[in-house]
Amino acid sequence: QVQLVESGGGLVQAGDSLRVSCVASGRTFSSRAMGWFRQAPGKEREFVAAISRYGGNTNYADSVKGRFTISRENVKNTVYLQMNSLKPEDTAIYYCAATGSQESGAPTPARVYAYWGQGTQVTVSS
Asked: In this predicted structure, what is the pLDDT of residue 29?
């Protein structure tokens, strides 16, 4: 089992930056791809970013490309999402996710991820 705990969310203004973090339990963190997803009120959960197990490959949703950066520190069992130039439409609960088994890529579909955190709220005011 893998437990994921997100932190770092908050209320910011449009144009500001924010970094959210996710710490994973267990000793298999470096074998798993990690992803960030988000869900806004009244909308379906959507993919934001993903990173391969050693960080060599990343994928981003078009809506955040060039503004958000995903990274990881395997020695700390932690994955980060640096969010710059935030917009009101980025307001959502942000969820960290880990693949269920060894994964060499940076997958985008939510169905590939077996473990999910409880989420952290990010609110961007205009």
From this structure: 92
